[in-house]
């Protein structure tokens, strides 16, 4: 059998016991009584004081019992007849947990609080709550191993999947206690002991960094209650490119756009932050711009002109475009999209002698592929035998008045296709600015940035600055084989580090314990102790009333 307390801070109330005894000892017991002389009473008082220094009474015992039971009840004792319960410690390792409050770094505070739970006995497991939930330490009674796994944690992930982490914790110890240490509120309906860690930190951070066609865009967020002026630097391959000063409103966002010259490489945006900045992981961000390699299986003058106008792009025509290796994008004619499994494709049908010409009436103007693309009154020639691809995964980007698709898109983790229902030689779009802009948008979406979110696990052999690393825990350029990846935080949620969380709980430190029957038993013990304390308080009042002359009700009132 073991006894633990979920809110041990209330045991400090036991310090009131000496105060009760002291008050009972010095309490005056005088009643006004008219007598004929005082010398006999004074003599009796002297004898009584010489005989008695302290006389306990039923009133005193009831008062001491009330204070003891009330303190024990508020401390939420957990009585178990099967030994200490298993405990799973879920530690949030998202980037905001690396923030520095006035009372310390949030993750360090979490580790300190978690280590205090190790002394309660029982088996301990540790779950790392980051981009995904992983077991940092399986159930063990070895406290040294548990402490080591806690100290090895590092806060860096772009986000924390708390719901998944709590599910994993419940699967590890279905009848155990789950303790969540986070600066984010627990998921709705969660049954876990919640230890809030949000503090008073203020932060400036880069939340967005995009490198497009000859321009870079940077967004900076602030949690400061006052407007802030901050310097933003942009460099490429360690060479300065530009610098600007941003004025960011209180708890707001500031944006900057930089023109870029042609050329590939990795760009770095860096903030020159004040000393009070609480989080360093979002003070720098990386974005790549590399040459895009395109192959075509047939010649097309409008396409070739559009490709020539794009910076950081090389292209060539080869009949083997569908099989050639090393290409980032393949522009193919007369290919069945159902036969494609992997890669980036722009597909056109072959020219059709029986094409019927229709006008484009509707297009997804808010989609990035259609940015600055005006298709009003554009005429396209559609093969009457052309059949729309099957499957709900295809998204229509533009269509004619009779709802015939003109442009369609398919995106899966390994395959991206943009499919046109017309050949470039059978549309007047090629004589408009819309065509080269559409091709540029499509290829830009295929270009993609070789980037990874902060906190991503890396394959074996990945390096940063020549050192082998297993996880991307610091912003920078990482090499995996022959490819390089830019790693940045870029999370407005994490940069706007959470403030104090209001939690309705006993003691303000825990929401609810987990573990079915054990929870009900814990609640039953605490409720029983509080009810017993109230019963003793009532008994003490009744006894005091009797000693005052047999009246159970105050003067001037009668019981019914």
Explain this structure to me?
By secondary structure, the protein is an alpha/beta fold. The protein has four domains: 93 residues, no CATH class; 132 residues, von Willebrand factor, type A domain (Rossmann fold, 3-Layer(aba) Sandwich); 101 residues, Immunoglobulin-like (Sandwich), CATH 2.60.40.10; 156 residues, Rossmann fold (3-Layer(aba) Sandwich). It is built from ten helices and 30 strands. The strands form eight sheets. The protein has a nine-stranded mixed beta sheet with strand order 18-17-19-20-25-24-23-21-22, covered by helices on one side. Strands 7-6-3-8-9 form a five-stranded mixed beta sheet, sandwiched between helices. A hairpin with a 4-residue loop joins strand 23 and strand 24. Helix 1 runs antiparallel to helix 3. 34% of the residues are buried. The C terminus is likely disordered.
Q: Brief description of this entry?
A:
The protein is built from ten helices and 30 strands. By secondary structure, it is an alpha/beta fold.
Strand content: 25-35%
Q: Which CATH-level-2 architecture of the largest domain?
A: 3-Layer(aba) Sandwich
* CATH class identity of the largest domain: Alpha Beta
Quaternary status of these chains? single chain
Ends: how far apart?
Answer: 47 Å
- By DSSP (H or I, 4+ residues per run), the number of helices equals 10
Q: Shape from CA axes?
A: elongated
